[in-house]
Amino acid sequence: MVLKFFNPTMLLLPNPFAASKLQAFLRAQYAAFGIREVITPTIYKKSLWQTSGHWENYKDDMFDVRGRGAAGTGESKEIGEDEEFGLKPMNCPGHCLLFKSQKRSYKDLPIRYADFSPLHRNEISGALSGLTRVRRFHQDDGHIFCRPVQVREEIERTLEFVGMVYNTFELGPYKLVLSTRPEENYIGEIEEWNRAEVQLKEALDRSGREWELNEGDGAFYGPKIDIILRDSDGKEHQTATIQLDFQLPQRFALEYQTPAPELEAKGISTTESVVLGQLGIATPVIIHRAILGSLERFMALLIEHYKGRWPFWLSPRQAIVLTVDDSEEVLSTARSIVEKLSAPYGLKKPRALQSPTFIVDTDYSPRSIAKKVSEAKRMRYNFLMVLGKRNVADGTVDVDVTGQARLGKMMSLLQAIGFDDSTGQLETGDSTTGKTFKNPRAVKLPVAEIERLMVSLSANYL
User: Fold this and answer.
1) Is 92 an active-site residue?
2) Which of 46, 112, 288, 289 is catalytic?
3) Of 24, 34, 79, 312, which is most buried with the most CB atoms under 10 A?
């Protein structure tokens, strides 16, 4: 929800499940793409923003902060203590400091950082809009420090990452737009821009996706690729972005040691031993990249895209246990089911880091089961688990699976994990759906089978 007291930002309820899952999903992919997650400060001195150029070009969109001693009235102040501070609107300056904290060799590159730290931008009130435009937000912000010769390969890997993520969420269609050097007010040499644009075009061609050229609309510091996603209303949103930056490495005097530094700067490789024997310093290229963009905006798009019917792995309402009566045997069994599927209360030893935990709500109220089911359906739970005395006796739960998106894929998973249909609950559907449940609103399953299904759905992002 968004409240006026919070300078328009997202205020999540005690269970921010979907937002946490988005971050966890990306983190799970980072190792495969050679990405290291970092955490950087929220507040930096004004001098850092002056170095990066943000204080000059972006100050109106930043929140400035004054700390103790900012007026400079004390006599024994440390140098720089009386400076102004700024809440960070982006992570790139902090990542530059991380890169610069050690001596680097060409053998160390590329270095890929990712950061989920909150960002703050002082947007004008008229630009604010629900979750899609807020003043405090989280971004899967990443920066790749690479050699000029590595640009194309890094762009290809990033486009591969984008494609994998968007396919998982079944988002699309989306388009790729390459924006090239502006006619005026750009930094760097034209030759440098031309080399970079050629590498970006080659990476886009090799991606196998259609892309558009937007001549002259690149940032002043380098060309960029924007991923434009269309929502359910037909409105287009920029989500992912990939931007080359020639300026920031120079502003922060970033460097690495390399043979043949002059050829290195031009992205030219050589095998001549005499040339390779000439060691020197070169400046890396920075690739700014975000896969989801603003997590808040991405959640807004997912809300519209799924229309309340979330896939199980991402759903904030995965399952609910509905009791038929309030007898002690039914309530006791219900509590044990919740503990088994979510997490037992009061562990003697810590759970493993990757142990799956599911959100299982309960409704023990003394209402009719029809009213409980109706209310749970309106709340769009993926699984409704009805428990009565007959279920307690035969060790099963009646599960309504109609709230699960992509039922066909769920059925395939259920059969893959060895679903025992000894009770004859399946029937043959059409050629596209295969086996289906005769009564998907009351599937009798033992709790162990439900747990295996939930684990399999989460593991397969369904």
Assistant:
1) yes
2) 288
3) 312
